[in-house]
Amino acid sequence: MIVCLLVCFAVAAIGSAATLPSIPGWYEGLAKPDFNPPNWLFAPVWTILYAMMAVALWRVINSADGSARRRAVGIFAVQLILNAAWSVIFFGLQSITGGLVIIVLLDIAIFATIAQFGRIDRLAGWLLVPYVIWVSFAALLNLAIFILN
Asked: Of 6, 12, 73, 87, which is least surrounded by CB within 10 A?
């Protein structure tokens, strides 16, 4: 479990390092939709989601073996890489368009992860549902920022 938490929160740290420097200047200067949440909400939501992702990963690792586990962990790794990439591209590189492309791929990868995890451990799949809802909302937000800017 500790390794799963470390892996997920390492991605959180990468995302945070890419995001925080861009918030006060670049991000604050963007036109945003009315449904944009306050900045303070993102950190607690992401903390909970990364913890849930770690628990889901831990459950799958401990519930499967062989090719099923390799496939599930591989798909999880892809979505985790896309998760970090979105922060680096959207905030770090300040690319709204690039962020939009990555977040659509991220959503697809999360749905694939949920499906794969659910085959192995039903609860593990369900633990990722709030994550895909939040990322889908973030994709809508990214799209709205793209349109407005």
From this structure: 6
